[in-house]
Amino acid sequence: MTETEQSNEQEKTLDPRVESLAIPLARDYAEKNYPKVGEDENGVSIFEPAWRGANGEKDLRGKSKEDVAADLVAQGWTPEAAAATAETTVVDIANTPYDQFSEYWKEQNRGGAEYLVALVDERGTAALQSLDLSDVATRSQYGTLIHDNWISRNEWVKDPNYGNPDLAKPFDELSSEEQQKDIDQVGVLQKWLAEQQ
């Protein structure tokens, strides 16, 4: 099966709730984790760019399209070919709309959304909407669930060479900023559930 056929097959079987939730998860993350630098002509927030490898390549983190193109030109590529390749090599996950993410970054957001939708199916809408996210025990319980799911989808975090030991810790040992990123997902879920009714 070709990559396009696999992508088409995935789209056919993807729970529409997952895609619907993945979009606000991606936007909420950008709004809360990247410095806002302005607004466009439509009033949409513009954030400090967060360049990432389109397929999750760690060596491309923080490299803009211009940086990648310059590196390729230095390797002997023509400027035109370098620019065209750079266009598909990196993505600004802070400012790119979800529908324009590479498949890798869509999958990162879908993974979290799939888990949250499964929680809704398992525990029920009412139970999740009524969660008090300011309660320490609730934060610990749901933060642990969300963080453990994230680690299961991001094994790279444990790699001794390029992982991040601060993120590989259990939820209760994370910094308060990192804990909040997990809790924010539950907040997005609660808002999304309210909008579904």
Could you describe the 3D structure shown?
The protein is mainly alpha-helical and about 200 residues long. It folds into two domains: about 5-50 and about 95-195, Globin-like (Orthogonal Bundle), CATH 1.10.490; about 60-90, no CATH class. Helix content is about 60%, strand content about 5%. It contains eight helices and four strands. A two-stranded antiparallel sheet has the order 1-2. A two-stranded antiparallel sheet has the order 3-4. Helix 2 (about 15-35) packs across helix 5 and helix 7 (about 135-155) packs across helix 8 (about 175-195). The model has no long low-confidence stretch (mean pLDDT about 90).
- What's the level 1 CATH class of the largest domain? Mainly Alpha
CATH topology of the largest domain: Globin-like
Biggest sheet statistics: 2 strands, antiparallel
Helix- and strand-based class?
Answer: mainly alpha
| CATH architecture assignment of the largest domain | Orthogonal Bundle
Helix content: 55-70%
How many independent structural domains?
2
* Strand order, largest beta sheet: 1-2
- The beta-strand count equals 4
Q: What's the rounded overall pLDDT mean?
A: 91
What share of the residues does DSSP label as strand, in percent? Answer: 5-15%
Q: What oligomeric state do these chains adopt?
A: single chain
